[in-house]
Structure formats: structure tokens, C-alpha cells
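#random but structural
TW: two for the price of one
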Amino acid sequence: RTEWRGCKKLFPLLHKSFRAVEVYFRMNVIIGFLLVCYRYRLLRDLMMVVPLVDYLMGVVLLNWNSPDKERNSVHFIAGLAMIFVDMAFFVDRQNFAAPARRISQSLLCVRTCEFALLLGVLM
């Protein structure tokens, strides 16, 4: 148990590194979709569909997993950040952990499908 105490000092660095890699990966997927849609003229109309679907998924997931008294405007603002970062990933407060875990698992599923679709188009 005492051997892990030194690792607590590394947590801020590891957390920032994880978030930087997450944003980098999401930007690559979104830019990849935009480039593929731009390259193939038939898909140009679909250029903004993937970021829009991702945004709407984040807003819907936040809305479904939030208390009823919370305003929807908060979800629309937080949905913008959810395009690039899974903000629910590190939530560990007592009454928020289960909804945050559901949000993270759903986002992981959607983003894995997006990545697989992008790889399928590029291959």
C-alpha cells in the first residue's frame, strides 16, 4: 500500500496527459471525417453530420442522466465540451458516479463506432 503513495504525485501529470491524448484523438477523428466528406463530393452534404450527431448524443445523455430540476441550457453548453472530452470520465462524487459511468460507457460505444466507421471508409 505504501508503494502507491509516491504515484499520487504523478496523478496531475497523468490526468493532463490523458486529457491531452483524448482531445488529440477526438480532433483526429473529427478532422478525418471532415476530410473524407470533403474528398468525396457525394458526401459533402454529410460533412457536419458526425460532429452534430456527437453533440446531440452528449446533450441527450446529459439530459437523461441529470436531475429534473437542472436546466437544459446547461446541457447545451456542456454538450460542446463533450464533443472533444468525456467530462464524466473522472466523476467520483457519491450520487453522480453511476450516471457519469452510464454517460462514459455510452460515449465510448458511440465514439468506437465512429472510429470504426472512419477506418472502414479509409480502408
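TW: number two ↓
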Amino acid sequence: ILDGFNSFMDPTTGQPDVQVLGIDVTGSQGDKLQLSVDCQIMNPSNVAAALGPVSLQLWSSSNVLIGSLVIQDFNLAANAARNAVTRFPGVLSQIPVPTDPLQVAAVREFFSNYLNGKNQTAQIRGPA
């Protein structure tokens, strides 16, 4: 039996199988802030995947898109128990200067919490 990836969501809890472990601001380029994101993905399938570069999005806890990231070499481990975890350290991410008022507020809150050392929740999702 080949089990699917379930959009990397736990079907019993509805929680994402993708976790952001840490975010570091590394610099800026033009009107974009550069980040390094450490994340991990639990594979709910017994099928490994080697997909090459994969584009993803970084969302705030208030469900607002705040940036994008690319995992250059997306190789996902698998096992028979359907709980293999693959870590992706130092994934480069960019946050452009927002123009939408909702995004401005979300990015401001995100970096205010970052500067104050407060833990916060961020999500990584595939592009819509």
C-alpha cells in the first residue's frame, strides 16, 4: 500500500507535519529582508521523495503571507512507520517590503516579536 502525503497535515489532529524550528535574519537585498529558516517535515507516507528545488511560502500565525523560501534539494525520507522526519537547515527565505496593510501589520508583529525574543508560530505552506 502506498500512503499519500496528506498535504503534510496530520489527519487525526489537523496540525501541520511541517515545523519551523528557527529563523535568523541574515541581511537584506534591495527591498527584501533575507532570512535563514530551519525547518523539518514529518513524512506521513511510506514513500520517499526527491523533488529538486521546491518553492514554499512562510505564513504568520495570523494567517498572512509574509515571505517565500526555496528548499534547493528537497529529499524527503520515508519509513514503514510513516513518521520519518527530514530536517532542512539554513533554507534561504525572503520577505519583501509589504504594501498591503494586513501584510504590513503581520510583518511588523512578526519582527517585533523576533526582536523581543518572543517565541511565535509560523507556518510553511506550498504556494496556492
